Amino acid sequence: MAQGDPPRPLDEEAAPTPSRRRFNAIEPPDRLRDIPSAILHQPEDTQNDIDMPPTTSKQRRRASSQGASLDQDVHLVEKITEHHDEGEALAGTAEGEESVLYLAYGSNLASKTFLGMRKIKPLSQIPVLVPELRLTFDLPGIPYVEPCFAGTDFRNPDAPEEQDSESSNDESSDLDGEFLSEKAPLMVETRELRACSRTRQWNKPLVGVVYEVTLADYAKIIATEGGGRGYRDIVIDCHPFSDGYKSTDPVPNHPNTPSFKAHTLLSPAADDARKQREALQNGHKPAALSPYPGASLFDLGPHMRPDPNYAQPSARYLNLLVTGAGEHDLPVSYQKYLSEVHTYRITTIRQKIGKVIFLLLWGPVVLSLLGLSKRCAGPDGRSPPWLVSLSNLVFAGLWNSYDLFFRRVFGDGERTLDS
């Protein structure tokens, strides 16, 4: 839709407008497949002449809630792997077509990534709201290059809506003046403590797009997103936008359209937090959870940052989300939020020097892991457990070297310094 065109209702059966990990990946080799272009300064494919799929029909959505539907099979990933090895096919939808509904909300919204670079060919697609989830930017990448990626976290749809984070920006200047004027030695620490409150957050339902894809393409998605190990495949309720909804309308906190089932890839950290909360609510002791299905007690979990709201995404990565949201004509308020997310910028000579040294030190290691993950991947594209543990160990060392040395010597590699 052109900038000056009137908003178009997201009609369920209307032809869609053009439409790529929670970019949701925690397994470093697969999660960071987008990083080589940033490390090597290679331009991305900007192909735009891609035919967009039709809107997912009501009949297909209704079929997702049937008992035998693959769309609500929580063991689908394991079954894809098993049947792939045996050369067999899985039972498909009510029409007999083997397909699955997959919810995308990160860089997979952009057609040049999802359809172009990843070569996924959706059978259909539809924009949706997910009241149980909200958008975050808390998945660690590489300091100075790709500090973080988009993810999701569980939210309580019935909780009172939080105050818009825009107001926190106004209040922070007064707080800074009060606390920083007399305590200069505490300036850096105080600013870091207030970083979370200055970060814009999307507290409304997750906005995304559900793609209908073949099982072969879904296995490819799992492979490129680390879903078999780093991700946990979950089934979530998705709500299409109402027939009369316009992109200029507010995002509803409680969508009133019939929900349907779709698979999405969730970070283990968010999934573990949900399970811990549910265990406490039921009066049970939270159990120790493994980094991924089939992991042993000695396997290392993925590295997570101490403050999930501190890091800022790169302009390159955020542009994929902004572009994808525009291609799918997602709500204007959501597009506005994405366009106003602060991106990471290097602002000092020290940071530039630190970036060069950091990439010289860790770049070859990361690229080697990427090559190793492709070479050792199984039929479903998943890395073996030993490689997952090795990757987690490498990225723990990468971030520890940043925290203990690079950040102190060369400056912040996650968040743009205040001018």
Automatic annotation (TrEMBL):
The keyword Lyase applies. Its EC number is 4.3.2.9. Residues 159-179 have a biased composition (Acidic residues). It comes from the Eukaryota. One of its GO terms (molecular function) is gamma-glutamylcyclotransferase activity. Residues 1-73, 152-181 are annotated as: Disordered. Keywords: Lyase. Substrate binds at residues 102-107, 317. It is an enzyme of class 4 (lyase). InterPro entries: G-Glutamylcylcotransferase (IPR017939). The active site is at residue 225. This is gamma-glutamylcyclotransferase.
